[in-house]
Design a protein that fits this description.
This protein is an alpha/beta fold. Helices cover 30% and strands 15% of the residues. It has 13 helices and 12 strands. 41% of the residues are buried.
Length: 385
């Protein structure tokens, strides 16, 4: 199974798909440091360093999957919200790759802000363009006119390649990632394959974590912490325990517990100690103040951020049970984004955190990739192409 990675970033999505069995045909990335990260972890000869507008798709005649994260700044809640009027909007080039390569499937990731009400028309246009990639229009026609034409398509009026496109707002914590991270995942499968695809069911839940914290104490025992010293067992514990008992009775919640920062970092030494981990370097200067409190040690982390103007909620900062704070190291941020420990992120701390914050969690990418791989393996691509 072959995949083309566009807007590759540091390679979180690519690594997850690789673990799911996909072989990378090429990577496309314009950022210098992200390009260096890709080169340190994947085959350097397959990496195109430059603008996707200059990438020649004609060299790739047999690609099963196109994957990537079109730049999210035009839709980010922390950005300027210009959507299609932002020259960083790369969805048209993602669609072009689908038009030209007609892969069995594609998967794109973007920020939650893509679903904002004021972007709804353009988002529908994106979905329709991905559904009917061969439905061309005169270049002089604006996207709104093209959108209205796409809305009138019927089965009898369209004979080109068609995709069954699904999208879903996914919280990575529900799939075992130790981070509250909500992202829109768009998946398309080529209609002529006759294969149905659905998003994988969640495997982890907040309710189960609360149950193990407040009812059974299993979370604290796992970390060898006395119930007398549990940071979260406070005056409200009885109320929370009663609420959980009322909801679930004697039967524990289904699924596994959300993974916490403590779960992810339990075996990592303090960065101020001698440890020999190259990218586990202490960064001084972390401060806590109203609205900038960091990520709770005994909860999934806040979303690791890639903001260009700082991180307003202290998302890239760890808060211990005694309210001390410090910045996550690059190594710790990789753990939270479920990168392998030996995955190399190039650049200074700020640039490395930007790349990690932009990445798809590797575990989530692998789970989605496993489902797509099963579908691709059930089809004879060479015949259907």
């Amino acid at each position: 199974m072959r995949s083309l990675e566009i807007f590759s970033g540091a390679g979180g999505l690519a690594k997850g798909l690789e673990l799911a069995g996909f072989k990378h045909s090429a990577f496309v990335e314009i950022n210098k440091d992200a390009h260096l990260s890709l080169a340190a972890n994947f085959e350097k000869c397959k990496i195109f360093f430059g603008d996707i507008k200059d990438f020649d798709l004609d060299h790739f005649t047999a690609v099963d999957l196109v994957a990537g994260g079109p730049p999210c700044q035009p839709f980010s809640l922390g950005g300027k919200h210009k959507a299609d009027h932002d020259n960083r909007d790369m969805f048209p080039y993602a669609i072009r790759a689908i038009e030209r390569l007609t892969p069995q499937a594609f998967v794109f990731e973007n920020v939650k802000g893509l679903l904002r009400t004021n972007f709804s028309d353009y988002f529908e246009y994106i979905i329709l363009r991905l559904t009917f990639p061969d439905f061309f229009c005169d270049p002089s026609v604006g996207w709104r006119d093209h959108w209205m034409q796409l809305r009138t398509i019927t089965k009898s009026s369209y004979s080109g390649t068609k995709y069954d496109v699904q999208f879903k707002l996914i919280n990575a914590a529900n799939y075992g990632v130790p981070q509250i991270r909500e992202r829109v995942i768009i998946v398309g499968t080529r209609a002529d394959l006759g294969k149905s695809w659905s998003f994988p069911e969640p495997t982890h839940s907040e309710d189960r974590l609360l149950w193990e914290m407040y009812v059974t104490g299993g979370y604290w025992r796992r970390h060898e912490i006395s119930i007398l010293h549990c940071p979260r067992i406070a005056a409200s514990a009885d109320e929370k325990r009663a609420s959980l008992r009322n909801r679930f009775g004697m039967f524990e919640p289904d699924l596994q517990p959300w993974r916490t920062v403590r779960d992810a970092l339990f075996d990592i030494p303090d960065p101020r100690e001698k440890h020999g981990i190259e990218d586990h370097i202490f960064k001084d200067g972390a401060r806590s103040y109203a609205g900038h409190t960091g990520s709770d040690f005994d909860w999934p982390s806040k979303t690791i951020k890639a903001g260009g103007h700082g991180v307003p909620g202290g998302e890239n900062m760890l808060r211990y049970p005694d309210n001390r704070v410090r910045y996550f190291t690059v190594f710790e941020a990789k753990r939270i984004q479920t990168f392998p420990d030996n995955f190399i992120i190039k650049g200074a701390w700020g640039e490395a955190m930007r790349q990690i914050g932009n990445a798809v969690p590797v575990l989530l990418a692998e789970i989605i990739g496993n489902n797509l791989a099963k579908m691709c393996n059930c089809s004879d691509f060479s015949i259907l192409k």
